[in-house]
Amino acid sequence: MTESPAKSVKCWGVIPAAGSGSRMAADVPKQYLQVAGATVLEHSLNALLRCDFIERVLVAISPGDKRAGELPALAGPRVLLVEGGEQRSDSVLAALVALHRLASPQDWVLVHDAARPCVAPGDISELARQVIDSGIGGILATPIVDTVKRSGDDKRVVETLARERLWCAQTPQMFRLGVLRAALEDANSKGLAVTDEASAMELYGEAVQLVQGSPDNLKVTLPQDLHLAEYYLSGQRSSSQ
Question: What is the domain class of 11-236 according to CATH?
Fold first, then answer.
């Protein structure tokens, strides 16, 4: 277990897991694919559950999802299943609405991708520590080290971007429950597409800080990503023994 960064502060977890993962070209949604002895979703969920400062984790699943009931990890006392929506933001918002019956608007929420099974509990704890100490919501992220090109519609280079201040966003992303719900509802009412919680908060005029994470915290998107996830998870298992 990872110790609480602040015993007087309540933190909750949310995992949107209602997606189909069509780019994996698999027979089952990618969150239910097996890697390193468990499903992708179980690894992602267990990373949050290892942080004892997280009260409970709400997992948003598709309506009629039968696979979730087959996973013992989803039946644990600190896990609550809710019905998700068509888009990621819909699933997160559904979980936040359910969470409002349990938590205060000032409580912190850590939203984590179901498809990021390799996140280290130590990185989650460091994110929580920095966010709680500063009172400013934040996300795990890694600085871009490659040269970055912007292309036109014809896939020809338009310009080379300065990479010194560019980051790749990861999850968890941690914000106060009340303002995150308000930001997502505001974006939804305006028809604005948001691909993560940070973008909703930015549109809402809220500050978002970056907390450096690890490249190991990859998002399983393509079939070859499973091999990398297997490698990283096996390494984590070896280092903990």
Answer: alpha beta
Q: At what angle do helices 40-49 and 225-240 cross, to 10 degrees?
A: 40
Do the Cβ atoms of 128 and 110 come closer than 8 Å? yes
172 within 8 A of 182, measured Cβ to Cβ = no
- Through-space distance between the first and last CA atoms of the chain, rounded to whole angstroms: 14
Q: What is the mean pLDDT of the chain?
A: 93
- 72-90 residue pLDDT tens: 999 999 999 999 999 999 9
Residues 82 and 200 sit within 8 Å (Cβ to Cβ): no
CA distance 49 to 172: 13
Rg value, the chain, Cα: 18
| Digit-coded pLDDT (tens) for 213-235 | 999 999 999 999 999 999 999 88
160 phi-psi bin (left φ>0, alpha ψ -120 to 50, beta other): beta
Task: Respond yes or no on whether the N-terminal peptide bond of residue 172 is cis (omega within 30° of 0).
Answer: yes
Q: Where are the domains of the chain?
A: 11-236
